[in-house]
Amino acid sequence: MRATVVVPVLKSRSRGGQSESASTRTPESRLEEATGLAQAIDLDVVNGSIVPVNDPRPATLLGTGKIEEIKALLDERDSGLVIVDHPLTPVQQRNLEKEWNAKVIDRTGLILEIFGRRASTKEGTLQVDLAHLNYQKGRLVRSWTHLERQRGGGGFMGGPGETQIEADRRLLQDRIIKLERELEQVVRTRQLHRAKRRKVPHPIVALVGYTNAGKSTLFNRITGAGVLAEDMLFATLDPTLRRMKLPHGRTVILSDTVGFISDLPTHLVAAFRATLEEVLEADLILHVRDMSDADNQAQSSDVMRILNDLGIDEAESAKRLIEVWNKIDRLEPEVHDTMVQKAAGASNVVAVSAVSGEGVDTLMDEISRRLSGVMTEATIRLPVDKLALLPWLYDHAIVDGREDNEDGSITLDLRLSETEATELERRIGNGPKPDKEDWER
């Protein structure tokens, strides 16, 4: 379908009386992003317009002159769809459709359409359906008044019975309640999965970031998984979890989450809460940023705002978050070198290229260091009846040395965190008590 993208740039009055933009993003970057969103669902974008709006109209958002100007463009380009990169009220959407004689969708509707196409699991489909129904609930129009039921009450003073629009709203609400119940089961299932993972306490590392920042490409680079990764907004939607081994042998679970975006519809945030809570459970969060994008600072602010809404405040994120400056392979050599040096001098930043693999080893070492905490050195002799602990040790500790003894026991030189050292003592303490030399510090 041939589509036209319209980006309204609203002005807000500052205290000094001067006009300033209501958005921190440049109009050009907003137009580029909106065009990318449209192309993500195979729309043929034939025109893109940036429209300054000094005085938003309650009925149409845009002024009369701009509406006529855009109508002429639609007729000229034979465009049957207009995407307005701004939230529209039901009244504004309906009036613009009448004026332009074309289908009109706003930013929320476009993102919902993309999510609807990307959802591949039952959970993803439920979440998108719920968000879509909540969005549609306020957009039913009175096109069915000829189907009003017979008047109620006595005489002709009684009001009309239930209209078709009221019946539609009731059916929508029934469907919403049904979906919410199904999603409650999803939440319970996820909680059970988390409880099982806690029993086998592999640390969880979650990838977050703006859409198209390269999270899935980095996920594939680290884990060798075959997750769909394309240069496209919202190429992946459903979360993916994989086990991976860090350089020193420790096993962790890496989680690839849905990409964030500015002005993420509240319907989607609410519907995807069960999925996004995977981030809350993570021991470490990798915030992947596309450093080749001129708007990466504004994108980073949007991601941090959503993390804050989820309950991860600035103080907590400082302890649990690593910034991954991705796509440095796209930068000019001088900019590339400067950015790598800047990242090397920061305590929570790693510069990488998920495509070429540059910096990925450094990132893996940093993940290992952050998850290790305060390391404890230990030498332990495992008797024959405790050799079942070997897989656990190789998963949770760094084995610096191993000696196989003649009596079948094994002596290991270990480095492990204080928490894991305590857990190892507990595991060794189960069953027959080992000799004193079995556990030496």
UniProtKB/TrEMBL annotation:
The gene is hflX. Keywords: Coiled coil, Cytoplasm, GTP-binding, Magnesium, Metal-binding, Nucleotide-binding. GTPase that associates with the 50S ribosomal subunit and may have a role during protein synthesis or ribosome biogenesis. It comes from Rhizobium anhuiense. Its main location: cytoplasm. The keyword Nucleotide-binding applies. This is GTPase HflX. The keyword Nucleotide-binding applies. Monomer. Associates with the 50S ribosomal subunit. Residues 162-196 form a coiled coil. Pfam families: GTP-bdg_M, GTP-bdg_N, HflX_C, MMR_HSR1. InterPro entries: G_HFLX_dom, GTP-bd, GTP-bd_M, GTPase_HflX, GTPase_HflX_N, GTPase_HflX_N_sf, HflX_C, P-loop_NTPase. Belongs to the TRAFAC class OBG-HflX-like GTPase superfamily. HflX GTPase family. Residues 203-375 form the Hflx-type G domain. CDD domains: HflX (cd01878). Residues 15-26 have a biased composition (Polar residues). NCBIfam families: GTP_HflX. It is found in: Cytoplasm. Residues 1-31, 421-441 are annotated as: Disordered.
